[in-house]
Specification:
single chain; alpha+beta; Immunoglobulin-like; 3 domains; five-stranded antiparallel β-sheet; four-stranded antiparallel β-sheet
């Protein structure tokens, strides 16, 4: 009886673990957007990863639609794919931060496979872009994955407050965070001029001369004295 109960419990746990793994596999089988930066106004490299085909069919093309908040994006070359841009004219010209105006924007970017991507292999596609100055905004990138047989339209947007996996084919997304102060591009790091000023103020002592300079001068004089003594000793031995 105890052996039977133990066997049933083990089987139940194994079944549950198996279902959980299947759930995790399904949840992770999306086309995701991974940015290098999320700060408002920052320049970011956003990578879209494709890890499977369409129900076992090889991927032949991937069209990434840019959100309306973006005017353009620069695609990174992938040797296995050709790249095309779709440009749309704007109903009303837009004024950029530098004061210039544009009458058209890049609406989407398409990667077309030179050789269809095996459904069990992974590839990545990276776009370089500048994020808008709108912290708290979530940008969605509807992505159409075409395959030799069928296609998957990753364009569903979860309801407000809902989890990304609450829909079957969620659009890749990223949320803009607050801008990083002291950096014009919203990136990480310290302003170079500030770093130089800080280092200079730390190493200088009274009189405006830095202590590394005094150490260098002292080491040089010591070297001359030791060299002279060595020369005199060698002369005496001869």
């Amino acid at each position: 009886m105890r052996f039977s109960r133990t066997l049933k419990t083990t089987a139940a746990l194994g079944t549950t673990a198996g279902l959980m793994m299947l759930g995790l596999g399904a949840a992770s089988a999306h086309v995701d957007a991974t940015p290098t930066e999320t700060a408002a106004g920052a320049y970011s490299l956003v990578t879209f990863a494709v890890s499977h085909g369409c129900d076992g069919s090889p991927t032949t093309a991937l069209t990434i639609t840019l959100p309306d908040e973006l005017n353009d994006a620069t695609p990174t070359v992938n040797p296995n794919w050709t790249i095309t841009k779709s440009v749309h004219k704007l109903d009303t010209p837009r004024t950029l931060a530098n004061g210039s105006k544009i009458s058209e924007r890049t609406a989407s970017i398409t990667y077309t496979a030179k050789t269809p991507l095996d459904p069990h292999e992974r590839d990545a596609f990276t776009l370089s872009l500048q994020l808008p100055d709108s912290a708290g905004t979530t940008l969605h990138f509807p992505t159409l994955q075409k395959c030799e047989k069928g296609q998957t339209d990753w364009s569903e947007i979860p309801a407000a407050g809902a989890d990304h996996d609450s829909v079957k084919a969620p659009a890749p997304e990223l949320t803009i965070t607050a801008a990083v102060t002291g950096d014009a591009h919203g990136g990480h790091g310290t302003n170079l001029a500030d770093a130089v000023d800080s280092t200079d103020s730390d190493v200088k002592n009274d009189g405006g001369t830095s202590w590394p300079a005094w150490l260098g001068l002292g080491a040089g004089l010591a070297g001359l004295v030791l060299g002279g003594l060595a020369f005199l000793r060698s002369g005496r031995k001869e």
